[in-house]
Each structure stands twice: as structure tokens, then as C-alpha cells.
Write the C-alpha cells for this entry.
Amino acid sequence: MVFPLICGIDVGGTSIKAIVADSNGAVHGEWSAPTPQGGDAVVSAVAQLVSTITAHAPGPLLERLCVDIPGLVDEQSGTAVLSVNLGWENYPMRARLSEALRRPIYLMQDVRAGAYGEARFGSAPATCLYLPIGTGIAAAILIDGHILSPHIWTGEVGQTLTTDPDHPGHRRPLEKICSARAFAERFAALKPGLLPASAGAYEVFRLRESEAEGSEQARYVVRSGLATLADAIASWSSLIGPIPVVIGGGLGKEGTPLVHELTELLAQRCSAPAPILTASRGSLSQALGTVAMATDKQF
């Protein structure tokens, strides 16, 4: 018997990533296209991408399809509630996709899709806090393999106000202090022009390991940023318990050194610190989550 392959669609802020995978999470093909502005334009781009995949897939495809999108998402109604960056508000994304593609569609929020993908096919245990840290910071909670999302704002932890280490007495959103983008922006404010405008957390983390100009400032930015992140994780652990925390996104690429640093910082803050892990499926986590949901969800 030939089992159908599953197509998964991840709509990102700059590109739409599509994969074809089997039920074990092995990827058999990848496609991508730029992400346009506006709900109707995104639907058209996804439909065109699916048409291309259908024509070139290495085998028969499962009929139903799951798509993840960024921003605030009401998964029950299939509504794209808000994405400032992509220009939609209360857009009936699931209905429009289903109409355009003529098949059943399940709509997911991208962070929750990433958590599901990592739990099914990556390094995340069935019960964990999934924490992708890239341009921003968000979270998803998995309990025994089930996503906990009682509200569209669930997981928007990057907007939490916290003490700003660079401006004592002031508070800023968490993602302005310890997201992957924030490490670069905070360093640039201290040492303008030293790193290229395209630099991110990777360059700041590498600079702190050297004795080159700016290394002292890089060490301060990384140390204070990780301390702020550890404070936040310690606070969340007090509420949900010390379940494993899986770091994804750009910061997750720091791997073992990041795990060691956060583990030490949490040990200073918690009687029962949460274990720290890093995601293993990288930029494919979200698309793999939609692959898994397409097979698991009854829709």
C-alpha cells in the first residue's frame, strides 16, 4: 500500500515555506515563495505554491492541508485576527484558503505549529514550554502532546514589560531585551557602526568570546540579556512547574553553550530549575507542525 505524503505550509513574515513529508517527519521536498502583503494576496500565493507542489510532488498527497500563519490567530474560527506586519485584521483565512484550494484546511498560529512539529519530529518532549527566540519572543505550552491555547493571546510573552538593564528605572517589553534581534540592537546602541547593520545575535555572541574592540560591551549585552531571560523563565516555571523549556528560533542555534549558561542562571533563581533544551528541526519546525496536524486533526 502506498501511503500519501503530507504537504505542510508555513507562512512567515518574509517567505512562505512549503514541504512535503511522510508520517515520520522525513522531508521529501521543499518549496518557497515571497510572502505578499494582505490576506487575499497570501491566499493567492499559497494556492499557487500548492499547485506547483501538486505537479511536482514525489508521490500522492494527502487531501487535507494545514497552514500556519504569524500574529494573533483564532484557530477555532479559522480567523487571522491580527498581523500588523502582513496587513490583515479579522481576515477569514481558513474559509478563503479552503475556497481557493478546494479542500479541507486547518489554520494554526505559527509558534504553536513549531511546538507541535518539535514534539512530533524533533527534540521537544510531550510536555514542555516551547520558546522560539528570533526577531521576537513567543511561547507555546504542550501538555502530554496537546497544545494549551485557551485564548488568542496565549503565548505572547515577548510583550511582557520587564526591567530594562540599559536604562535603570525603566521597563521595556521582554523581546526588546533578549530576543535575537534585541541582542544586536542593544549592542549597536552601545557601539554604533562596529558590526554591520545585518548583524544579529550570532555576531554579538561571537564577539564576546574575543578580545577585539567591543568585546566588553558584547559580554555585557549577552550576560544581561540572558539574565533577563532566565528571570522570565523562572517566573513562568513558578506558575506551570519546571517543565522542560525548548529554545528555538535564531537563539536556539547557540546550542550547548546556551543550554549551559541558562541552566546555571536558572539554578541561581529556582529551587527546581526547568531543564533547558534546544530545538532540533530549525526553520522546518513550523512546517512539520502543520504536517503533523494535517494527519492528527479531524477537520
